[in-house]
Amino acid sequence: xxxxxETGLPATYVALPFADWRTRSDWPAVALANTDxxxxxxxxxxxxxxxxxxxxxxxxxxxxxxxxxxxGRMGYRGELRATGGVLQDQVAFMLRCGFDSxxxxxxxxxxxxxxARTVFSVVYxxxxxxxxxxxxLRHERRNAALT
Amino acid sequence: xxDTYFYRYDDxxxxxxxxxxxxxxxxxxxxxxxxxxxxQFKPLRLHNGLYLQLHAYMLRIAIPYGTLSSRQLRKLAxxxxxxxxxxxxxxxxxxxxxxxxxxxDAPDALAALAEVDMHALQTSGNCIRNVTADHxxxxxxxxxxxxxxxxxxxxxxSTLHPEFTYLPRKFKIAITGSPNDRAAVRVHDIGxxxxxxxxxxxxFEVIVGGGLGRTPMIGxxxxxxxxxxxxxAYLEATLRVYNRYGRRDNLYKARIKILVHEVGVExxxxxxEAEYAETRDGLLGLSSETIEAIAQQFAPPxxxxxxxxxxxxxxxxxxxxxxxxxxxxxxxxHRAAGYAIVTASLKPAGAPPGxxxxxxxxxxxxxxxxxxxxxxxxxxxxxxxxxxxAIEDLPAVYAALGRLGFAEANVGKITDIIACPGLDYCxxxxxxxxPVAQRLSSHFANLARxxxxxxxxxxxxxxxxxxxxxxxGHIGILGVDKNGVELYQISLGGDVxxxxxxxxxxxxxxxxxxxxxxxxxxxxxxYLDVRNDGERFVDTYRRIGAQPFKERLYETx
Amino acid sequence: xAKNLSGDLQVAxxxxxxxxxxxxxxxxxxxxxxxxxxxxxRDRRSGEILLLRAQAEAFVVIDPFLVAVAEDDxxxxxxxxLRERIRASGLTFDAIAADAVRYA
Lengths: 147, 557, 104
Hints:
heterotrimer, B: alpha+beta, Sulfite Reductase Hemoprotein, domain 1, 4 domains, 5-stranded antiparallel β-sheet, C: alpha+beta, 30% strand
């Protein structure tokens, strides 16, 4: 399994399974199953350096919601890693939901990751990647036309 | 003057659809080169509307909120000729299915579609599907607000939504802006009904957890009144709860209706409201300016005043009985004086319901150009609608539709049958649907008799997945396979009308294919014998119950 | 008269990847669009082998599977299930006949 990261060298912490981490929540790295209550990390996001979220299959999308809650709601800024069914055709969605490192053994994954932010130059919804949705761009365009 | 009276793509929309076509082209290339397994590729093709059926791939093209320009319909005809066998099938969810597409050609077909600002995005797969709306939107006399404005807003928000593309199961949203629901909002994963409260504000009733399929359920009200500008925040909250907690252990229990059923609507509401409390003040709030910019594009055409009583129409009514019947069943009131909404029946006697050839599509496009502001609608009853026809022009439209075989005066009648493609096409089906529909529509072809029978909806599904909506048919027919023999279960009393939505009850043992016509005949004969004056079939059924129908049916077959 | 309806006789089928067309595996290990050329297995064990052969040739098709067939005295084979008969012979109604007549 190879690790890919957009942000240079990934963290080297050993991520504890959620149940273990709970008993020593000062540890800076945790791995969640996609059924684990991500909300419980809220009080610890400033201390955490690595959160690993799991896709048991690439078609099981629960970790997308966990990622958005971590990034958008709880303001987690450390490394957010996707493991399991991590394939190049979903990586653009993962980036939008706030993942920034990926474990994948798919051939060509690294190249795909490098391209993934440019496959779509337009997005319709706000997410966790800071990209301006079309509605905002249209709004700015209308304002520019008025002035 | 705009060339259409509905949403027009701007460069952003075009860029996204174009990029999507190229992404899929690359995915197809990788699949054909063996770089992707079928398991990996399947969701990707499904998210682009491409199924594998019995004989070939099928491409399901979205017709968002059922609205289509004549130019777009001509392009569909073109694509069906170039990449398929020269015909297509309009579905109950305002899609067009082409049944003989080659995987190798699919990217080119999608590129051709993109030329007229159309796509097949999210017409399949476990994502938010094509959003449907009242096919009379923008023309109906009873409309509070055009639901297509909101359907377009939802279309954009749901398109390539990064969080909701791998949901537990498919997710269908329907929107109505009229008290007379023509969008079946109580049988969708989420149904949205625009209404005006006592303060005079317009908002949504949000209905959740309806659906047909193997566990049919009527949706429940999740929120009685939602301010319009909060729609996306509320939908995002609902979808998030579903994405996190919907069941994934069993394909047949993965729809949101099962989650709602298992946790109860109160708990579901509490979870959604808690999530919504967090999402409501975020970026998903819709500014009145954003809403207005989209609403403007749905501004109705400027229809010059035309006479409401036309001598030639009255004369033809007396002269041509079929025309008189057609006026009654296929022509609905328009909000503008002197205009009407005309439904072109895609159910001529003996034909596969909802099918249109390329020639027919082009013919209807021509009629729309001449008589209906170049605009068309696809209804969930699998018919095409001409939304803005002057009453003066009705005789000409009737004649022109007649030349295409689409002037059957049967809308809402016993031969206006909804049927899924069934075992002739579908890999999931257990029994055939179309041949059954053909036999029934041939048998009941007599128009005067159909009008005497009155409103009676037959809906046929070829398997328990219920694409033919048999649960909500006044007469529902479900094909099953018993030891290799096709049998058909008959149910009575289903209804999809708002406020009366009901699931039909199976009346007794299933009948063989050759007895379906006799069985329906027996049910109809029972009704004709006992109905009160002006009483619809389904009302008679409600009054007297199943027993009389059952007795006569099983004496006959 | 079909002489063997036991379900012992089987052919391997799939849809072709590039265009979705229904195909069967022939004796030479090629995928053919003609059912009459399909390789027939006559017992369970050879059925398993046929499926393995089909899976080995699955690069150009999607998810091969076995289809129970009956065989006539003259060697004509026909799938036992209606679904597979429809896959083999196409739609059971004429999709565009009415249309063709109308516009002839």
